[in-house]
Amino acid sequence: MTKGVQDMPLEVQHIRSALLREFQDRISMEDFVKKDPRERETALLSRAVSAKAARMLTDCSSDEAAAGVIDGRDDFGIDCVAFSASGSELWLVQAKWKDKGTAGFDTEAALKLVHGLKKLDNRDLDHFNERLQVLADRVHGVLRLPTCKVNLVIALIGDGHLSPETQNILEEAARDFGGLGRTVEYRVLDQRDFHRAIREDLEPQPITLKAAMDREWYTREIPYKAVIGEVSADQLAHWYGGKGDEQGNEKGHGERLYDRNVRQSLGLTGVNQTMVESMLEDPEGFMYRHNGITVQCDRIEQEYHSKRAVGQPTTLTLHNASVVNGAQTVTSAFRAYERDPEAVAEAYVLVRIISLDGAPVGFGRSITKATNTQNHMERRDFIAIDTVQSEIQKDFRLSLDKEYVFRRGELDPAPESGCSVTEAATALACMHTDSSLAVRVKGSTNVLWGEGPGGAYTRLFGQQPTAQQIWRAVQVFRLVRDQLTEVRAKLTGRPAAIVDSGSLLVAHIVFQRIGRDKFDEPDDEWESLLDEVPEQVNSVLACVIATVDILFTNKSFVTSTFANEERCARLVDAVLNTLERGTGLDSPTNLQEFMDGAKKSRQRRPQTVRLLVDHDVIADGTPLLYAPSAAEEQAIGAWLDADPRRRRASWVNDRKAPLIWEADGQRYSPTGLVSRIWDAAEWKDQWSTVQGPKQWRVSGEGTLVEIVERLWRQIADAGESGEAVLA
């Protein structure tokens, strides 16, 4: 991503990425071959906006929309032409793109669009460019209809506001060209419309299923409609893998059947293979040996073949349906059908169909979670119905054009194409400031999915991280892993064991050394930072190997040391402080003395605020200024600027609450005040952890962390204290 793209508002970045994906290879740019690349992209995006507008309004294909783009010389204010399927309606689109999301539509643009309409209405097509000439017959065909409808469309990457003068021009054109059965209207599509459309493009298309029940069945209407009965297994097979034919059999939906399920089908596991064999060997007895399936849908339509009564043959149409329990049964029915269709037609499955029409929010999710007990369930399966994960998946597609998979059974994307939720959660756990998460994950990744207070999943995803934050965490995690693998091959004995047991703790320390604020750097600076990660790993690992023996002796058990949260917390503190002071393996005496002091006191080292207060570094009443990161500035900068006091605080020498916020006169810790600001600004995507001392600055002195680092160097040089500073 270029610097220019990073300066765009996030919504505009999303729209840009989606438009390029859809239209970059479809829209002709031959007239811009010799132009500056930046100018060429701006023109392409403007044309893509017009094509996207055509798609949104006419439901045409991407290719058809691109074919209607006529923007260029002699377009007379018309960038794209689109037609209704019936051929009685015409759309004339003028589009405007602005990187900042500030595109407007003035009176000059309106007059130009109306002039283009006049020329088309007068059949004066000869002066239009060649792209319009290709569409001339279709344009004539619509305009000569006595009841045709013409739509003037203004497509803007902006707020869509039109001045009264501009509106008057368009309304006058509508009056002049309308009448006698013909109508002319205008409408505006703004940035919000386009962002909504590209998000909807990522939503799975609703599935409609037919379920014929020709045996006993029953229904209940209160409190919510449900139908329970027997469905032949070959119907389930067609739901999954039907070919579609002229007899009305629909094409199967494959894994999309399970979009609302906690996981995809797991392939031919032992349990599923047993189901296949059971269906083939004793189809009539299959229903007695299996639990059946549960289907959710938005609405049920019911048709009767003869008598309208419960239990009589009926066909149900299930709108926006999903199999929420029994994915393995449905997939097994398809596998069996491939081998012997006739046998599968004799097997029946008990199906429970639940309509969510009128049900409260969360009712469907609770059913999905409660009914998934037939096969072995893992805790991570249930995150698949957490909307946060689907939102992250969309963010990956929109912001990064990468894949993010979170259902068990889905194939992990290629490393360069994206990541899985397990890899993402592991990276975020290492990135977290609490080292205990990395310790627990090393024992079992199952701890990643714990919910509720203190649960790892809640701590990592409770406030949805952005796709960029996750992806960059994964990039660092992969580099650490690869470097450790390379180094491990050259080690033996105790150092090798430390790599094996402490790999995630090493990753955690590397993340802390980088600092979370660095994860919002521009792309070029981020790439430079990534280049430094292997050397960071080498430094951290060397210090970890030495420090383990100093803190816990060389007789300590490596495996148990790295499984002990308290020991690992001490180890992390010691390594971070040692590396921060710059005294590494080349200064064993200093390191030994520092660690000996740590062993004697066995107390957590003073944090930034404690050291500043204890040494009376900052005078009471000293003003401080909030120094947000680029991501924070983009998210809450406008809120901060609305009241200048929101960025200001003053210092009080108090260990717990040294900052007085000008906005409300209350006292906070540095971290607590940043959190308060995020909450007050209603920043929904705020991070799960805060490093407040890095975000408050004393004019001419630097941040609290920078001040404390200078203080510590003075203390260390003077030999006044053996304590270390935690930034």
Structure description:
The protein is 48% helix and 13% strand. It is of the alpha+beta class. The strands form five sheets. Strands 18-17-16-15-19-20 form a six-stranded antiparallel beta sheet. The longest helix is centred in the first third of the chain and has 22 residues. It is globular, with a radius of gyration of 32 Å. The two termini are 31 Å apart.
Biggest β-sheet: count, sense, barrel? Answer: 6 strands, antiparallel
How large is the radius of gyration?
Answer: 32 Å
Could you say which overall geometry the principal axes of the C-alpha atoms support? globular
Q: In angstroms, what separates the terminal alpha carbons?
A: 31 Å
Q: Mean of the pLDDT scores?
A: 83
Q: How many beta-strand segments?
A: 20
- In percent terms, what proportion of residues is strand? 5-15%
Instruction: Give me the secondary-structure category.
Output: alpha+beta
- Classify the helix fraction into a percent range: 40-55%
DSSP helical segment count: 29
Task: Extract low-pLDDT stretches.
Answer: 267-271, 373-377, 584-605, 718-727
As laid out across the biggest beta sheet, the strand order is: 18-17-16-15-19-20
